[in-house]
Amino acid sequence: MSLTFWNRTPLLDEFARARDEMDRMLGRTFGMGMPMTEMGFTRPEGWLPPVDVSETDDEVMVRFEAPGVNPRDIDISISGTTLNIAGKKEEKEECEGEDFYRCERRFGSFRRAIDLPESVDADRVTADTENGVVTVHIAKKPGQKPRRVELKAETKPTTRRIPVPG
Hints:
This protein has helices spanning 10-29, 36-39, and strands at residues 51-55, 59-65, 74-79, 82-89, 108-115, 120-130, 133-140. By secondary structure, the protein is of the alpha+beta class. The protein folds into 2 domains: 8-44, no CATH class; 45-91 and 102-143, Immunoglobulin-like, CATH 2.60.40.790.
């Protein structure tokens, strides 16, 4: 196996800064909630855990990956219909004296704000973690369940044409 060492140079750093600025500009231009650099998890100042948001008749579930993050270092709060997730992943100094050829693991602080539907009950929220995946359960308010509306097809009377001889 061959490892390639990537030397950082001022020119490459300048290209990286220009790419990050362009990603931020495109994110603002196209109305994205976050810059494209954050979507690609390449923020130089931290990282963002990937998030899944799903909904059932009874609750909204938010799952996010935070492997290696101590549950005590994760703060989950809800304000109105916004779920706020914040935390910090500490980098351990166990690699002193090692030369890195590639470093993709992310460390540092993260913060996410997720808009929830109006039907959530901010007083009934629970969270648990298993194998680095945190699941937040937000119950819906009673009586706020969606109601299925039946769609009826339009019916037109059909007319038969009878050929007339002649």
